[in-house]
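User: I'm putting together a teaching handout on how sequence relates to shape, and I'd like one worked example. Could you take Amino acid ABC transporter permease from Vreelandella neptunia, show the sequence you're using, and then write out its predicted structure as tokens right after it?

Assistant: Happy to. First the sequence, then the structure tokens directly below it.
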Amino acid sequence: MGPTLDFLTLLPYVSELLKGLTTTVILTLVTTLTGLALAVAVAYLRVNAQPWVRWGLGGYVELTRNTPFIVQLFFIFFGLPGLGIKIDAITAAFIAMTLNLAAYSAEILRAGISATAKGQLEAGRALGMTTLQSYRHVVLVPAFARVYPALISQSIIVMLGSAVVSQISVFDLTYAANFIQSRNFRSFEVYLLITLVYLLLAFGMRRSFMLVGKRVFAYQQGEQR
């Protein structure tokens, strides 16, 4: 007889699955908000700040984009204590995910900002806007609208990459799967279920962000028609 599947063996572990799902969702939501906020600041400074600031931020972006996320996570959680900076697991995961998302998103935003014609800024100032108002309404919002789909994809990538935070004992979905598998030894059923949950999370995130984008950037879409 061949192997038999028994998903009912997962029922006693529903609470662990819900705990892992909750942690993953909260981590994703918080790091998406903070990561994108930091990305806006980094993108702005990389375009408008003094050369030494641009070089420093460029170094941060390149270092983050060219090293594995798990190494960044381990450096924060295991490396910083060597300097006397002790961080708990969930905080380390939050910091690593935020910095990772911010670095990638900053480059995406910088491309959108660079596509804005300088004449538009001058037109904004001619209308009596301050420099900050011109940047916000004339540069930043249209740039966000242009690169919004790419930002959504990057946020989803970070959510999927959050699975590695289980390596520092953060009780996320992957940690829950490893925990359950170590108890009932039903590896196929456990990891198939977790795969489907991640898939649903990715689809749900994309759909939700697209709906938000349609409302927030509705006037931008109207202008492009």
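A couple of points you could highlight for students: The radius of gyration is 21 Å. Residues 14-48 form the longest helix (35 residues).
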